[in-house]
Design brief:
Blueprint lengths: L11 H19 L2 E5 L5 H11 L2 E3 L7 H4 L5 E5 L8 H13 L4 E4 L7 H11 L5 E5 H9 L5 E2 L2 E2 L7 H11 L2 E5 L3 E4 L4 E4 L12 H15 L4 H20 L5 H14 L2 H7 L2 E3 L3
Parallel strand pairs: 1-2, 1-3, 3-4, 4-5, 5-8
Antiparallel strand pairs: 6-7, 8-9, 9-10, 10-11
Helix pairs in contact: 1-8, 1-9, 1-11, 2-8, 2-10, 6-7, 8-9, 9-10
């Protein structure tokens, strides 16, 4: 059952950490079912990220199953990484049904500006009212400007801070919370802007970490859809904290991947309260 995590009245940094811990506890106790229509590269890490956090992943993308399955989920995550004309109808059908059922859904516009087909598909999905849009700076700039050629594969040619104005514009135009991943993860609702300062650079050397944090955002929003702005920032910070703790034991990207999952599973209140670092940024 959905619940609203009421924001704490504690000082800003402590309030964010307390809220993040409350949301993670809610996921662990409720185990929300999260449907993921995602790319072939990310399925494994995305599913393991959700399981480690306490959620229940379902990697269902067949358009024939959408009418029966999607209404029973708590949230939907749509990732266009390995987009094809055969998958787009399922993505759109699931998004439409999620909205009709009052369930939040999250869009990951991977390499949105890489081709005309991909950009048009992402814009069509944005029209279906995602609760959250999470991408790197180049992807968010491409969506905001509806332009082609600003991305290089799934990597970003911009820093997250470069996309603040584009993110605000996209949030205002779409009604979605917009998150920009980078050295500092930016989250905005078009007015408020916060930065999640957790994570380590080596996370960028692991395929599908961005995809996985989008799925984690879906789980956080599933347990507190009323406060999607706070839920999104908390998910980004929690994932970053797990990366920081995993890095303490890792020897490289492969072992960081393993320890990232283990650290997310083992996060306790002391870890979250001492490590979550979310701050307000200039508007």
């Amino acid at each position: 059952m959905e619940m609203e995590i009421k924001p704490s009245e504690k000082p800003d940094s402590t309030r964010w950490a307390s809220n993040a811990w409350a949301l993670l506890c809610a996921i662990r106790s409720q185990s929300p079912l999260i449907q993921c229509i995602t790319n072939f590269v990310s399925m494994d890490l995305m599913a393991n990220t959700l399981l480690s956090a306490g959620a229940s992943p379902a990697m269902i993308h067949s358009v024939e199953e959408i009418p029966d399955f999607t209404p029973h989920t708590r949230a939907l995550c749509v990732n266009v990484g390995t987009l094809s004309p055969n998958w787009l109808p399922a993505m759109k059908a699931a998004a439409e049904l999620a909205c009709k059922s009052g369930k939040p859904w999250v869009l990951d516009p991977v390499a949105a500006g890489a081709s005309g087909f991909r950009l048009r598909a992402c814009l069509e999905l944005v029209e279906l009212k995602p609760c959250v849009i999470r991408g790197n700076a180049s992807e968010i700039i491409a969506l905001s400007r509806a332009s082609i050629g600003l991305t290089k594969g799934v990597d970003s040619s911009h820093e997250s801070i470069d996309a603040v104005e584009a993110a605000k514009s996209l949030a205002q135009a779409s009604g979605a919370i917009v998150a920009v991943s980078g050295a500092v993860d930016i989250v905005t609702d078009g007015e408020r802007v916060v930065g999640a300062h957790n994570g380590v650079p080596m996370m960028q050397r692991i395929t599908a970490t961005g995809c996985s944090v989008t799925a984690l955002i879906a789980a956080f929003v599933a347990v507190d859809p009323v406060n999607a702005f706070e839920a999104t920032a908390s998910a980004l910070s929690i994932f970053g904290v797990a990366g920081e703790m995993g890095m303490n034991m890792a020897k490289g990207p492969a072992t960081l991947r393993m320890h990232l999952i283990d650290s997310l599973y083992g996060l306790d209140e002391a870890d979250v309260l001492s490590r979550v670092n979310i701050t307000s940024l200039p508007r």
